[in-house]
Amino acid sequence: MANDKLLDGLSPPGFDERSCLSKYGSVLYRKISSHKPSPFLLSKLRNYENLHKRCGPYTEPYNRTLKILKSGHVGSTTMCKYVVWRPDNGLGNRMVSIASSFLYALLTNRVLLLDHGTDMADLFCEPFPNTSWLLPMDFPLRNQFRNSELRYAHSLGGMLEKDRKNLLMGSTPPYLYLTIKKRDYDLDKEIFYCDKNQALLGKIPWLILLSEQYFAPSFFLIPSFKNEATKLFPEKETVFHHLGRYLFNPSNQVWKQLITRFYDANLANADERIGLQLRVFHANAGQIQTVVDQLLACTLKKKLLPEIDTRNSVASSSNNWTSTKAILITSLYPEFYKNLSNRYLVHPSLTGEVFGVYQPSHEGYQHRGDNKHNMKAWAEIYLLSLCDVLVTSAWSTFGYVAQSLGGLKPWILHKPGHGVYLPCKRATSMEPCFHYPFSYDCKSKNKVDAGSLVPYIRQCEDRELGIKLFDDEQS
After folding, report:
1. Which superkingdom heads the taxonomic lineage of this protein's source (predicted)?
2. What are the φ and ψ backbone dihedral angles of 58, each rounded to 5 degrees?
3. 10 Å Cβ neighbour count for 161?
């Protein structure tokens, strides 16, 4: 039990359990993972924790590096270097980009600090012992963060365009902005993925990184990182599974008030829990009905849910129950709950199972910048990850995070209107999809298909242009 409690060594011992009940309490709710972290990953995490404690906010090395930042000049080699993560888009996007940024920090011996803002307060416990991963409010560059002109002027791409020779051969700037987004800052992305530029980035004490992408697969292609990334994750589809369980533990408020309370009341006694994560990209009555039809076609065809006996009621057949199952619905809209409730709470299933149908919330739309909304979203992601079976929506980072935390390979509903006539497809990797990977070969300076370079990085099941990591054995 003690080993399970520490997630096979992922969680460091010595935390005050009362400060983060979920860190050691998750073992009571989640099945033990069959995927074990490599000894090299565990060693790397312990070394990183020591580095973060030594270089974290308000330590002497941190204060000394701040002076370099304010002076505008990097003289000698600095003891500590940092990557500052900045938020963009919804919670799922933020979590996959935080995990990618942390992997970059591990590979480059940098300290990760989060500028997560007020709409992410009290979501997660601090992951590193006796220190904080939050960027201090008095960080000197905060007044620049929302100024797009200043950000571009001090971006890697912008500075190379302005003064390529001086940047490559001359003085090192104390900070640079890196933007790894879906369609913007193409020059930044091309430069970041080119191996020769990583040596330049390695000299810069402060990297300010803005991303909403799961760019972790790229480190298995960049030559200077490839070998170490493979040693960290010999089972390649476990990158987010391990890093996500290490980094993202629900705060006591989310854990007690939203996760365990709901789970204990609704899901705990079920023989099987079926999680449905349903996203509607262009919400209207027609689109919602399309997704309802698609969901039923998928779950009935794949025997995830049974047909119902429309001639009888649940009450008249209660003596014939064989097992109980819980259907957990996460969606912004109540229509899915109403449809499945009308099916499985009114009529008995032909297989003799009795169903409970539950939906924690239905907010109607995504409340950007709302902390309470993000708390609910995080709780529902976590509850999905505790299910035995998952059905998720294509292109949804919300679903990606849930499946990876739970070590699950979901049935993915195809995005309506994208020419696919099968209702769903089974994922063959539990990793998130990198929606907008690089398409630039640094040596030839030509376009390249990142999904065709190595056998363990291939096209995503739900997005042709995206790539994801797969196990070598499956490859």
Report:
1. Eukaryota
2. 70, 10
3. 12
Q: How far apart are CA 213 and CA 397, in angstroms?
A: 9
Q: Closest by alpha carbon to 327, among 367, 358, 298? A: 358
In one-letter notation, the amino acid at residue 259 is: I
Render pLDDT for 331-349 as a digit per residue (tens, 0 to 9).
Answer: 999 999 999 999 999 988 9
| pLDDT confidence of residue 317 | 60
Confidence label for 1 from pLDDT (cuts 50, 70 and 90): very low
Instruction: Give dist(CA 367, CA 313) in Å, integer.
Output: 39
Q: What number of H helices and E strands is found in the chain?
A: 17, 12
Beta bridge partners of 468: 458
**Which amino acid is present at 261?**
R
Angle at 19 (CA atoms; ends 17, 21), nearest 5 degrees: 55
Rounded to 5 degrees, φ, ψ at 126 are -65, 125
Mean confidence (pLDDT) of the chain: 89
In sequence order, which residues have a C-beta less than 8 Å from that of residue 421 and are 6 or more positions away? none
Q: Does residue 321 register a pLDDT over 70?
A: no
Q: Look up tokens 């009114």; give the residue.
A: 346
Complete DSSP assignment for 138-149: T-GGGGGTT-HH
Query: Please, which residues bridge with residue 356 across strands?
Result: 326
List residues bridging with 209 in a β-sheet.
85, 178
What are 297's two structure tokens?
């076609």
Closest residue by Cα to residue 188 from 165, 219, 210, 212:
210
Closest CA to 204 of 232, 174, 242, 177: 174
- E-strand ranges in 373-474 read 389-393, 411-413, 424-426, 457-459, 467-469
Nearest to 99 by CA among 432, 394, 472: 432
Are 108 and 224 spatial neighbours (Cβ–Cβ below 8 Å)? no
Whole-prediction pTM: 0.94
pLDDT for 151: 77
Cα separation, 466 vs 410, in Å, equals 17
Supply 96's token pair.
């996959």
Mean pLDDT of 239-252: 98
And the tokens for 429? Answer: 């990797």
